[in-house]
Amino acid sequence: MYMMMKHLHMTAVVLSVLLFVLRFIWKQMNAPIMQRKWVKVVPHIIDTVLLASAITLCILIAQYPFVHGWVTAKVLGVVTYIVLGFGALKWAHSKGMQWGAFVLALATIVFTFKVAITKQPLLF
Predict the structure, then answer these.
(1) 3-state secondary structure of 103
(2) Backbone phi, then psi, for 81, in 5-degree steps?
(3) Is residue 123 part of a domain?
């Protein structure tokens, strides 16, 4: 069960990040595809799977946010990524702010990935 959830979670992470990057590129190009219904719905489905698999993994390994530092760091990283993602795709109006939020969102994902691999909440 653990390995299945871990692989589902990792797949959802990859799909979520790839779709975020793709949507950001489309936004920068003012591509009409951004108005398609699936572009607005699919990210929510993927992120729901991501959240459900994360909660299941926490229960399976008995490691919880605000109890174990590395899980807390991952949760805070994901929340930061979500806020920066909203900034890049919706809130920021200038191209500079959009790009800044986009780059910071990707840096946050790299940090969160590092924490997931090392189980250490520190940068070094």
Answers:
(1) helix
(2) -60, -45
(3) no
Q: What gap in Å lies between CA 99 and CA 21, rounded to an integer? A: 11
Main-chain dihedrals φ then ψ at residue 85, nearest 5 degrees: -65, -45
Structure tokens at 78: 């994901």
Q: Which pLDDT value is given to residue 123?
A: 67
What phi-psi label fits residue 12: left (phi over 0), alpha (psi between -120 and 50 degrees) or beta?
alpha
Q: Is residue 114 part of a domain?
A: yes
Domain count, the chain: 1
Q: Contact 75/50 with Cβ under 8 angstroms?
A: no
Q: Check pLDDT > 90 for residue 24.
A: yes
| Residue carrying structure tokens 């520190």 | 122
Query: What is the span of the domain harbouring residue 11?
Result: 2-118
Contact 71, 113 (CB under 8 A): no
Report helix angle 69-86 to 95-118, nearest 10: 160
Task: Give the pLDDT score at 122.
Answer: 80
